[in-house]
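Reposting from the mailing list since nobody answered there.

I have sequence plus structure tokens for a pair of proteins and want to know whether others read the tokens the same way I do. The first protein:
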Amino acid sequence: MNEFSDDINFIHRSSDDTDKEFHATVGHIEDILIEDKKFLELHNDFMEKHWQEFEESEENKFIYTDIFKEYQATIEKYIEEELGKKVKDFNMLAFEEELKKRPNELDSGIFDLLSTFTDFIQFKMKFLDYKEGYERGKHD
């Protein structure tokens, strides 16, 4: 098998099967993001560790790239591993492609979080929002 075989299998399934698989995967993601204590701790610790580095400006610091890579290596990897335990033959790239076709079928908060894995601007905005909340006392 090659890297494209999973994508081809995903496309050739009936639309009912694809819909069921997509919605089941979304349900598992919601469970991870809302109920998985290990994920919540991992995510909160990551945000706490790095929020002070971010500033509201057009210019991006070099350290943002390092933090973004670390975020992908920890947060995204954790979600992908957990989904791999719950969804047979889970493929994050195939799921992300399917997600692009169905942006309105996902809660906006979940969609926003998932987009932080691939969209640097969304990632930076997440930290700036967190920082603003922290400075207002929301994360005490």
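The second protein, same order (residues first, tokens after):
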Amino acid sequence: MHGLKQLTVLSLMLLSVTAKEAAKRTMVGIETEKGSYGKDVELEDCVELDEE
């Protein structure tokens, strides 16, 4: 039972760090004549996107 509590605490810590990092990024969808794709970008940074 003690091992289960440690695993739960570790899981919550990992989830909180992951959620914090995910909040700084977003997915941008791009659609062209050739198809569509998504690109993961940072929110507070300029990113060049290929227009091919």
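Reply #1 (J.P.):
I read it the same way you do. The first helix runs from residue 2 to 22.
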